[in-house]
Amino acid sequence: MFPTLVACSNDDTDSGANARGRWIPTTAIDQVGATLATWLGVPAADLNGVFPNLPNFSVKNLGFML
Question: What's the whole-model pTM score?
Fold first, then answer.
């Protein structure tokens, strides 16, 4: 789901009268890369070596490549 890119919206982490729109990503490039790497045939045992930050995320495979 895409964030609402409007100042002071629910997805904006900045608030108040001078809100400039600050959105924090909810998906890491490591998750996207691991999903693509899995689709390309990289074994699951090797993913943490290729993407060292991957253990920090509960969802490793985003499921957009089936």
Answer: 0.70
Range of the domain at 45: 25-66
In a domain, 19, yes or no: no
Scan for tokens 């924090």, then name that residue.
24
Asked, for residue 10, whether it belongs to a domain, the answer is: no
Average pLDDT, integer, range 2-18: 74
In the chain, which residue ranges form alpha helices assigned H by DSSP? Answer: 29-39, 47-50
Total domains in the chain come to: 1
Give residue 1's pLDDT.
59
Distance of CA 13 to the CA centre of its chain: 17
Q: Could you tell me where the beta strands, DSSP code E, fall in the chain?
A: none
Give me 14's structure tokens.
């900045």
